[in-house]
Design brief:
Layout (H helix, E strand, L loop, with lengths): L3 E5 L4 H12 L3 E6 L3 H11 L2 E4 L5 H15 L2 E6 L14 H29 L2 E6 L2 H5 L5 H21 L4 E8 L5 H4 L3 H8 L11 H11 L10 E4 L7
Parallel strand pairs: 1-2, 1-4, 2-3, 4-5, 5-6, 6-7
The structure holds acetoacetyl-coenzyme A.
Length: 240
C-alpha cells in the first residue's frame, strides 16, 4: 500500500532523497521544512511535491500541518521523522539551550509527529513509521552528548511504539545512518571529518540515496513483517 507520506526535514539532504524515493514509489508526499525558503522553493521546482513550513518542536503547529496534509492529500499512511540538528560541543562547554534545542528538535518532534498520526493509523489498521536516528545514537560521539542522547532516545521510542502498534497493522522502525554527504557533515571542521572518514571501512561517506532506499523498502509491502528494528547504514564504521 502506498498512500500519503510526510517527511520531516524533507526538502534538503537525506530528507530530500527520502521524499523523492517515496514519490517515485507512488506515495503522495508532503515534505515539512523548518524555514529555509530557498531550499524549499528549489525542492518544489525540482519535484513538484507539496511542502509545508513547520516547527516540529511546536505541537499545535504540527497538528495544524498534519490536518492540512490530510485535507489536501488524504490520510497519512507513512511518517518519516527525519528532521534533526546538531549543536556539537563537549559537555563541560555545552549550554542548557544547546541541549534542549537538540532534544526538542530531534526527539520530542518524533513524539509530537507520531502522536499526530497514530490515531488515524490505528483506526485504519495500517501505517508505516520510520525514524531516522544515527550511528552516534548507537555508539556515542565525542562532542555530541545532546545528539547521541536524542538519537539513542529515538531507538527506545521506536521499539516501544512498535510494540504498541504491531497488532494495529502499523510498523515502526529506525534507521541509523553513518556519516552521509550532507550540509550537516559539510559544516564539520575538515580535519575532524577527515579523521572520521578514516574510520569507515568502506573508505567513503554515504550518499543520501543510500538511506532513502532503505526508507522506501521499510515503507513498502515488502517490509510488512519488520517492526521495532534498527537498520544501520554506516559503511561498516560501527557494527552493533
Ligand atoms: N576522542 C578523544 N579525544 C578527542 C576527540 C575524540 N574523538 N576529539 C577531540 N579530542 C580531544 C582533542 O584532542 C583535544 O585534546 P587536548 O585538549 O588534549 O588537545 C580535546 O579533545 C578538545 O578537542 P577539540 O579542540 O576538538 O574541542 P573543541 O571544543 O574545539 O571541539 C567538537 C569539540 C566541536 C565537538 C569537535 O570535537 C567535533 O567537531 N567533533 C565531532 C563531532 C561530530 O562527529 N559531529 C557529527 C556531526 S554530523 C552528524 O551528527 C550526522 C550523523 O548522524 C553522523
Amino acid at each position: 500500500m502506498t498512500g500519503v507520506a510526510i517527511v520531516t526535514g524533507g526538502t534538503r539532504g537525506i530528507g530530500k532523497e527520502i521524499s523523492k524515493a517515496l514519490a517515485k514509489d507512488g506515495f503522495k508526499v508532503c515534505a515539512f521544512y523548518a524555514g529555509n525558503e530557498d531550499a524549499a522553493q528549489a525542492f518544489r521546482d525540482e519535484t513538484g511535491l507539496m511542502t509545508v513550513q513547520v516547527d516540529v518542536t511546536d505541537d499545535e503547529h504540527c497538528q495544524k500541518a498534519i490536518a492540512q496534509v490530510e485535507k489536501q492529500l488524504g490520510p497519512v499512511t507513512a511518517l518519516v521523522n527525519n528532521a534533526g540538528i546538531t549543536r556539537d560541543g563537549t559537555l563541560h562547554k555545552m549550554s542548557l539551550e544547546n541541549w534542549r534545542e537538540v532534544i526538542d528538535t530531534n526527539l520530542t518532534s518524533c513524539f509530537i509527529m507520531c502522536r499526530g498520526v497514530i490515531g488515524g493509523m490505528r483506526e485504519r489498521g495500517f501505517g508505516r513509521i520510520i525514524n531516522i536516528s544515527s550511528i552516534n545514537g548507537q555508539k556515542g560521539q565525542f562532542g555530541q552528548t545532546n545528539y547521541s542522547a536524542a538519537k539513542a532516545g529515538m531507538l527506545g521510542f521506536t521499539k516501544a511504539l512498535a510494540l504498541e502498534s504491531a497488532a494495529k497493522g502499523i510498523t515502526v522502525n529506525a534507521i541509523c545512518p553513518g556519516y552521509i554527504e550532507t550540509e550537516m557533515t559539510g559544516s564539520m571542521r575538515p580535519e575532524v571529518l577527515d579523521s572520521i572518514i578514516k574510520q569507515i571501512p568502506i573508505t567513503r561517506m554515504g550518499h543520501p540515496d543510500e538511506i532513502a532506499s532503505i526508507v522506501a523498502f521499510l515503507a513498502s509491502d515488502k517490509a510488512s513483517f519488520i517492526t521495532g528494528t534498527t537498520i544501520a547504514a554506516n559503511g561498516g564504521q560501527y557494527m552493533a
